[in-house]
What we know:
With 229 residues, the protein is an alpha/beta fold. The protein is built from eight helices and twelve strands. It has a five-stranded parallel sheet with strand order 2-1-3-4-5, with helices on both faces.
Amino acid sequence: xxxxxxxxxxxxxxxxxxxxxxxxxxxxxxxxxxxxxxxxxxxxxxxxxxxxxxxxxxxxxxxxxxxxxxxxxxxxxxxxxxxxxxxxxxxxxxxxxxxxxxxxxxxxxxxxxxxxxxxxxxxxxxxxxxxxxxxxxxxxxxxxxxxxxxxxxxxxxxxxxxxxxxxxxxxxxxxxxxxxxxxxxxxxxxxxxxxxxxxxxxxxxxxxxxxxxxxxxxxxxxxxxxxxx
Length: 229
């Protein structure tokens, strides 16, 4: 899984608007998946959780409001940022959209440069490592640009899989990830790996992080999975 190829799900039933927005997102370096209605959007989210959802309010089959409600009600998808697009400019509509769980609300017609700035802002919040930020937790520092990891100033040598595991855990410290979630996020859904493989790589990551004698920062949640801290 690439840490820089962030995936945006674009849900828009108007073809011309969908393609113009997709073109601009792809020009920014994002991998764009398209859906033309709410039901198709839910199927794509089930297949692979995106890093961000841009969601039109008024759509056939399933409204954007209902898609947002379902995404935000599920533990496995509730952290995905949602930008709601709507021609409804009344304040009460914006409040309703935000109350449903949308992270941002943009009124049509929108300025493309402003929308792209809002996309970048939401992705920085949800995927700080993919935006090149340095992540820090309990003396561990991870520089996503240089792929350098240190603990209390001492360099930590990690293999590619252990590095991706650490990124995933450090982007959401305290959050408990199931083994299946880690498989999807670190290995990808297209690759078949036994869940016990997660345990093996977590053990290697623990050993590397504790190599200087520090406490084990990874918590095992019996019957569920793992969390950082």
